[in-house]
Structure formats: structure tokens, C-alpha cells
Design a protein that fits this description.
single chain; 275 residues; mainly alpha; three-stranded antiparallel sheet; three-stranded mixed sheet; 72% helix; rod-shaped
């Protein structure tokens, strides 16, 4: 009983084992087949990938060769353009240097010319300043001297002329011919009164203002006589100091007469003594 059971079990076990082995072989075969298929697919993919890469490399090389040729060509053109530009730059630099040279020469010429003009102007200014200083120095001296003459003569002058300060003195005394005539008439009065020292100051005053007046007119409008000793007495141009009409020759000139040359009119006769 037991032996039969055991035998039966063994038979069963053999079948089971056989089935198991069969199943295992079947699974293993499937795996081998699948593995082989995968391997073949992998190799095919790798071959395709390699072939594609080779194609890409070939195309890239072709494109690279073309690009490289273009770069070489462009580089050569740039070199030629650069060379041309260098030549143009050199020419422009030469022109600039030439223009700068001409400009410096012109500036030097202008500077020398201006220097000469400025030098001449400074010289003229200096001469005018010296002349003005001389004139107004003389005028200031006369202005101060007038304070020493008899007050009656100053009063007569002040009725027509300004004596508040030096500026008004100069302007009012040389303003017109009427001012000059007034100064001469006061000088004549001093001569007639035998106030010779005052008359000398007044005469200097008259001469100075005539000079200023003619200078401003740029011509000799007031002309002073040049009567000399031993000239023949002329009643139309001379006046005896004593007021007597005489014939003869002049022995002394006390005061020169004057005329308005612009109007061709005598304004004062020379005061003289006659013998």
C-alpha cells in the first residue's frame, strides 16, 4: 500500500517535473529569441545611427569647406579694403598737415600785421595822451593863475563863463566864438587899464582857448593877427592904446587882434602904441 502510493507519487512527480522543465525551456527559449531580436534591433539602430552620423559629418565637412572658402575670400577682400583705407588715411593726413601749415602761416601773417597795427595805434595813443596831458597841464596852470588877477575881471568873465571847476572852465571857455570874444574884450580892458600882469594872464587864457576851439573844428576858424613893431599903423586893424587916431609906425604891440576866418570878419583890432 505504501509502496504503491510512493510509486504513484513518483510517477506524478515525474510528470510534474517534465511539465516544469518543458515550461522552463519554453520561457528560456522565448527569452533567448527576444534577446536576439532586441540585439538585432539594437545593432540595426546603431548601424543606422552611425550611418546617419557619417552622413552628417560628410555634409558638415562639405559645408565647412564652403564656409572656409568664403571666409578666406572675405578675409582677402577685407585686407585689400584695409590697405586702400590706409592709403586714403595717409593722403588725408597729408592734406591736414598742409592745411595746418597754411593756417599757421596765415595766423603768423595776421599776428605780425596786427602787431604792427597795434604798435602804431599804441604810438598814436601815446602821442595823443602826451598832447592832451600837455594841453590840459597848460590849461590847469592858466586856471590857477586866473585866481590871482583882479576880481573885477573875474566877475566880468563869470557872467558868461563857468569857473566852478576846471572841467566847466575848459568847456565853457572854448565852446563858441562868443566865449572867445568875451575873453579878448576883458584882456583889452586890462591893457587899457595898464594892468599888464593881469592882461598877460588873460592873453594866455585867450590863446589857449583859441587853440582848443580850432582843434575841435579841425580848421583855423579864429585867426590871430601877427602885428609887429615898425608895421605901418592901420586904423582898420589897429587901435592906439591911448585911443587917439594917429598915422605912423607901431612902436609896441600890447595885444594882438583877431578875425573870424570862417565869416571873414574882424572881431578885434590889435592894441598898439604909435609914433
Amino acid at each position: 500500500m505504501d509502496i504503491d502510493k510512493i510509486s504513484f507519487n513518483l510517477v506524478c512527480d515525474k510528470k510534474i517535473i517534465k511539465e516544469l522543465v518543458k515550461d522552463c525551456l519554453s520561457e528560456t527559449l522565448k527569452e533567448v529569441i527576444y534577446s536576439n531580436q532586441n540585439h538585432n534591433q539594437t545593432n540595426s539602430y546603431k548601424d543606422l545611427k552611425v550611418n546617419n552620423r557619417k552622413g552628417i559629418n560628410v555634409n558638415y565637412k562639405k559645408n565647412f569647406d564652403l564656409d572656409n572658402d568664403d571666409i578666406i575670400s572675405n578675409n582677402q577682400e577685407l585686407k585689400e579694403e584695409n590697405k586702400r583705407l590706409k592709403v586714403e588715411i595717409e593722403k588725408l593726413n597729408e592734406k591736414i598737415l598742409e592745411i595746418e601749415k597754411k593756417g599757421r602761416e596765415k595766423l603768423d601773417l595776421i599776428a605780425n600785421k596786427n602787431s604792427s597795427i597795434i604798435e602804431n595805434l599804441n604810438k598814436q595813443i601815446g602821442e595823443l595822451q602826451s598832447e592832451l596831458a600837455e594841453r590840459f597841464t597848460e590849461g590847469k596852470k592858466i586856471y590857477d593863475q586866473l585866481n590871482s588877477i583882479d576880481k573885477k575881471y573875474i566877475d566880468k568873465l563869470q557872467a558868461y563863463l563857468g569857473y566852478k571847476n576846471f572841467e566847466s572852465f575848459i568847456l565853457s571857455s572854448s565852446m563858441n566864438t562868443e566865449s572867445l570874444e568875451k575873453i579878448w574884450l576883458v584882456s583889452r580892458e586890462a591893457i587899457k587899464n595898464r594892468d599888464f600882469s593881469d592882461a598877460e594872464i588873460l592873453w594866455s587864457y585867450f590863446l589857449y582857448m583859441v587853440k582848443l576851439f580850432n582843434y575841435t573844428k579841425n580848421e583855423e576858424v579864429i585867426r590871430i593877427d601877427k602885428v609887429c613893431k615898425n608895421d605901418r599903423y592901420n586904423v582898420y586893424e589897429h587901435e592906439d592904446i591911448d585911443g587917439l587916431v594917429k598915422n605912423g609906425y607901431i612902436t609896441k604891440v600890447y595885444l594882438q587882434g583877431f578875425v573870424n576866418a570862417y565869416l571873414n570878419e574882424r572881431k578885434g583890432n590889435a592894441i598898439v602904441s604909435v609914433k
